[in-house]
Amino acid sequence: MKSIAVLTSGGDAPGMNAAVRAVVRTGVAHGLNVWGVYQGYSGLIEGNFKRIGTRDVGSIIQRGGTILGSARCAEFQTEEGRELAIRRLRGAGIEGLIVIGGNGSQTGSHALSQMGYPVVGVASTIDNDLFGSDVTIGVDTALNVALNAIDNLKVTASSHRRALLVEVMGRQCGYLALMCGVAGGAEAIVLPEVETSPEQVAEKIQNAYERGKPHAIVVVAEGAKFNAEGLCKAFQKKRLLIGYEFRSTVLGYVLRGAAPTCADRLLGTRLGCAAVEQIAAGNKNVLVGMSHGEVITTPLDEVIRGRKPLDPWYLSVADLLAH
Ligand code: F6P
Q: What pTM does this model have?
């Protein structure tokens, strides 16, 4: 193999740049030509890629986002779109592709590999919902941003004796909400994986009020049946008793845009290097991820079929620790 390409796809995640840098520098060290594809799969279809070298990835390890840009590309979901992408790659003499991204992106990797094109995926999403890696690039930074916000919200909530609903991203996965809820000392955590009614949340808030807490923090996953807006409406409409006055804050994209933490820089670096080693050794159609502190590979078809459950221990202590 002489030439490989790298792209970042789906929601950007802090640490993607560290992974791009590692891919480029490890690739060059292996004697490979490395191409950067711009704007994810859209860039592949449009032929928007160019050779990049070690100097092009200087001073990016500390930057959030992705220097290659990212996109969600509907055309790539069609067979014609993918055929065109493969023609573009082969036309430029590129023999393998590294895809840094989450579930949707690795579904794309799998589809390409099914069409006979060699791909290695790198586990990257703030949602940490990707099967094949205990931890994904970006989640540590997103958790720290969320925690910072929760700590600040707790201060103002305490001053005013309020309940504050904090909504965090995560799509249909409650990982971010559960972990920053536990680490942030939330009085209640609302997850897509655990059906929770507004009445149950109200009861937890009311209990905190009666126990004399100056605030109640409720961390809500965006994918929960009742998100922050849904809960607020239900509290008002059903006149549920919660003691405190309440407000809500949606953290949204703030979680995605921060500079990567040390953990995400190291994870991006480790997985980026591993992806090149895999592709250079002739391994293909796998995802590189982490398991118990070691780099592992998982076939892409298992990755897209697999589901990663929430950690039962954190689930079991969330309520207990809120007292
Ligand atoms: O998958 C990452 C993520 O940030 C999710 O948490 C969120 O639901 C989604 O992307 C938002 O997608 P978009 O950037 O397309 O609005």
A: 0.98
